[in-house]
Design a protein that fits this description.
This protein is of the alpha+beta class. Helices cover 21% and strands 31% of the residues. The protein contains four helices and twelve strands, in the order βαββαββββααβββββ. It is an enzyme of class 6 (ligase).
Length: 257
Amino acid sequence: MWRELDVVQRTGSTNSDLVARAAGGGRGLGEGVVLVAEEQSAARGRLDRKWVAPARSGLFFSVSLRPGDAGVPMERWGWLPLLTGVAVATGLARAGGVDTALKWPNDVLVTVGGEERKAGGILAEAAGDGGVVVGVGVNVSLRAEELPVPTAGSLGLAGAVSTDRDPLLRAVLRGLEDWYGRWRAAGGDAGACGLQEAYAAGCATLGRVVRAELPGDRALVGEAVAVDGDGRLVLATEAGVQEPVGAGDIVHLRAAG
């Protein structure tokens, strides 16, 4: 699937570079392009949050996908960050020998000193007609003094048996190709291709009491009980209703009683 892979020493954001290319700059952008950076000066997460890491300390890359060309309905594209999360977690476990978990919708977690910490993030952005660029950032070899915030983590701090970025990247890309192929062949039906079950199995958010910070300065507290067929997080509230959350920040409060 990966027909083109470029590695650059430094750029602002691999996501921004591929989105710009999809908009008509340079050679255009088809499916299967991978852009890897040794360092990013303007890396972004969700809600335009900055992602800061020393050069050559992690995996910083973006890929181009075109689910629209395969007839996958746009309403199912919301699964792409979750699908990527499954591929990242699986690849890091296989090649790095480190346990990971997923925080809905786009964080990769590791355990450092008995504490759950964010070691990676995923950002999906529309790119032209029928295209999506998915970016991944993972802290690999960062030492404690290099962390952007004390609550962050890295594969090295979590006891990974390998922090060689080459096999880690290869493993993640293999997993992404596998899961994307299954999902695309199923027309984006996450239940039919097994993606919904795989995501739920690795999601640390499920079974916990969480606070969802929603658009419009609203908040919703409840137990995360499921990820539905549209990739939304379903919360069971104290009012006795189940409410799906499609977008928002999730704060893990405590394990469910």
